[in-house]
Design a protein that fits this description.
By secondary structure, this protein is α/β, with parallel strands linked by helices. It is 47% helix and 17% strand. It contains 12 helices and 8 strands. The protein has an 8-stranded mixed sheet, sandwiched between helices. β1 and β2 form a beta hairpin. The longest helix has 21 residues. It is globular and about 55 Å long. The protein binds D-malate.
Amino acid sequence: MELVLPDLTMVFDDVGSGQPILFIHGFPLNREMWRPQLESLSAHARVILPDLRGHGDSPAPPGPYTMDMLADDCHALLQTLGIKERVVVCGLSMGGYVTLAYYRRYPQSVAGLVLTATRAAADSAEGKVSRDRAAEQVREDGPQAIIAAMLPRMLSPHTYSQNPGLVTEVERIMAKTSQEGMIAALMGMKERPDATDLLSQINVPTLIIHGADDQIISIGEAEVMHRAIKNAQLVVLPHAGHLPNLEQRQLFNKALLEFIAKLADRSQAGDGQLR
Ligand code: MLT
């Protein structure tokens, strides 16, 4: 499906009914990375999967794509779909940065947060230099430069040795990101503000999921969020790297389904507590 607004065109899937869950993909990926979640969760919930601007099938207008802008795009999508109830927002990595921006901007529309393979901190000075270097490489050599640099670090050693088909699939998904989209997202991530101050203000149930072998965002970042967010739950998945939803799809889906079930109990009990 396609959302067409005067300043935004966004391709998305909207499948199932019940509790809406907005899945926000990472960089340089697209909504296809959530296929195992679409297949499993859409029997229990309404699964909404956008391709962020510049990624997948959505066009790439000029950047930079700030995390606030990407959060606003997602909000515009939910508004246009007429979703009145509060949503669960599940973001992975860059999608997690967007999730935190979404919560900062629209806290009243959020029922729960799922923060996967992500962090609250801004880029370090060194990280910002790497973003510039990466953008330069994409300008000179095309998207393949980033794919070649990231693919060997995206997954756990276990996945590389036991599931080469998944490595090929991730490479295929990454290859759908355009040159303009990659540069604009890199520049947006570079300028994202630190969200650490937000963590103690989060007052919705929060599930943090991280791969034990994540080489892109360390497990320490998940632990920081776990300590700072009230009553947050941390699930660390073994033999998973930066894409735990693909590498450990059953365990990931189980954690998510349990989280959704607890949210439903909580809203029935009306007592604001996760059991
Ligand atoms: C992602 O997976 O979305 C990116 O690796 C995040 C980042 O580069 O900070």
